Amino acid sequence: xxxxGNVLVADDHPLFRMALKQAVTQAxxxxxxxxxxxxxxxxxxxxAGETFSLLLLDLNMPGAxxxxxxxxxxxxYPDIPLVVVSASEEPAVIHKAVEFGxxxxxxxxxxxxxxVAAIEKVCGGERCLPPNIxxxxxxxxxxxxxxxxxxxxxxxxxxxxxxxxxAEGQLNKQIAYELSVSEATIKAHMTAIFRxxxxxxxxxxxxxxxxxxxxxxxxxxxxHS
Length: 225
Fold this sequence. Notes:
By secondary structure, the chain is of the alpha/beta class.
């Protein structure tokens, strides 16, 4: 089997990006790998119309908050195999990643052989989760989770970028400077973001986004009933 299109490796840790690239090339010799280390680079690739055959996405990239990056990339590439890679190995986090659209989950503690096998399996059309993860029969996401995911997915690339900077506490002036646009443009983006998230101000937007933080999910076992 060969891959048609580039493989995206999105992670802010250079050593782990290197490990993922090695796993990809072991699974598919000759595969072309494109790297991103933050949401800004990720957005530039999507805005450029880059096509991918596989997405390997870290949950905690700079500029993304919890599951927001996964939700956003799944919307942009609905038919491409997407694997979450994360240091968070709690069952609830893994199952929620799947419910938000991931085809597989690779813990950062995984060996090279496990990463290679997971990539091969997902590209073969199968779902791949860590072996200790049992099937979850009851959905973990409620209606509000799905509404929030729909809102995040509806953001434009620039709005998603602005929301990430807003959540990091940056002021409109700072965001405008970093994005090389006017403050008026940022205010317009803020208005659109608030409307899509169903909030009235920056504080409410941040609180809404925090519902997607990985750390907000409980540790320990979840029910498999």
